[in-house]
Design goal:
By secondary structure, this protein is α+β, with helices and mostly antiparallel strands. The chain contains seven helices and four strands, in the order H-H-E-H-E-H-E-E-H-H-H.
């Protein structure tokens, strides 16, 4: 278990990373911020950060999925006891999204993204003045409404937001999978 100080450091680090990396205009995203909705979400208190402290105890994730509160746009789970193998971690995230699509969590309109500490840095993101402050290593699980995420993507596509991102990174598969889950949801096929 980590201390309250370590928790606070992680929360502040996530907020600072968002502020310096996700919320600022970036030429790699056609002069849009890497996450054009992040700043407003923080300002409007639509982001929750919760912690997972025990290996293989995913109650916080399951609760976020099963009891989603639409007053929030994003729940970030800071996982201090994450799956150490990077590939296994991402396979777990994929299996959660598949379970969502198969109605295991009662609401098929959800999506989970994961970031592992050993994931390569995305060079399209300019971290500018961001300085990590937490001593504790952690993974992140981002829980969002699938439909809201896809509708936002539909607005960003014609603005050239994804052009360079798709050229530089192997995200097309993830993007296609998410879009397919959304189509299945919309068509009532999942």
């Amino acid at each position: 278990m980590i201390t309250w100080t370590e928790r606070n450091d992680i929360v502040e680090e996530i907020k600072e990373w968002s502020k310096h990396t996700l919320e600022v205009s970036n030429p790699e995203f056609n002069d849009l911020p890497p996450c054009p909705y992040a700043k407003a979400a923080w300002q409007e208190s639509k982001v929750d950060i919760v912690f997972k402290f025990e290996a293989e105890d995913y109650k916080k994730l399951y609760m976020a999925l099963h009891n989603w509160d639409d007053r929030k746009d994003l729940v970030i789970i800071a996982d201090t006891e994450f799956i150490e193998d990077q590939d296994e971690f991402h396979q777990f995230v994929d299996s959660i999204n598949e379970a969502i699509a198969n109605n295991v969590f009662r609401d098929k309109d959800m999506w989970v993204m994961g970031f592992h500490p050993e994931d390569e840095a995305n060079e399209l993101f300019d971290e500018g003045e961001f300085e990590p402050q937490a001593d504790t290593e952690y993974a992140l699980l981002f829980v969002q409404r699938l439909s809201k995420l896809e509708k936002a993507a539909e607005k960003l596509r014609p603005l050239g937001y994804y052009d360079k991102y798709f050229q530089e990174y192997d995200v097309a598969d993830m993007y296609e999978l998410r879009t397919n889950f959304y189509r299945r949801l919309k068509d009532g096929r999942c």
